[in-house]
Amino acid sequence: MLFGKEHVKRYRETDGAEGHDWQGTTTLLLTTTGRRSGEERTTPLIYQRNGDDHVIVASNGGSDQPPAWYLNIEADPEVKVQVKDDKFTARARTATPEEKPALWKKMTAVWPDYNNYQKKTDRDIPVLILERTS
């Protein structure tokens, strides 16, 4: 099973031939800029399309703390994305309260554990929209 750094490595080496399809769903590579280090950090994340946009969830497995990549986005919403061999820049934003219910339903349809993660924490798990800029 691919996970973490090995997942990123194989995804990049194969333009997503290995790593895009993962445990019955699909993943993209999200690269953020570290808010303290200034270094690029890449994370494989489950995604779904919503029109031209890509949707991801900042679940962190139901932890009370958001994932580091989410904190990086709060500091700098300009991100790099790779979906299979398609590499582009995007602006990440948190879905509005009006947008979130439909997007949450879309994401839990492909990864039902998001519902379990939300039950584990009092933190409102954000759904993010990646809007392509290039």
Automatic annotation (TrEMBL):
Pfam families: F420H2_quin_red
SUPFAM superfamilies xref list: FMN-binding split barrel
Catalytic activity: oxidized coenzyme F420-(gamma-L-Glu)(n) + a quinol + H(+) = reduced coenzyme F420-(gamma-L-Glu)(n) + a quinone
InterPro entries attached to this UniProt entry: F420H2_quin_Rdtase, Split_barrel_FMN-bd
PANTHER family cross-referenced by the UniProt entry: F420H(2)-DEPENDENT QUINONE REDUCTASE RV1261C (PTHR39428:SF1)
Family stated for the protein in its record: Belongs to the F420H(2)-dependent quinone reductase family.
Protein name: Nitroreductase family deazaflavin-dependent oxidoreductase
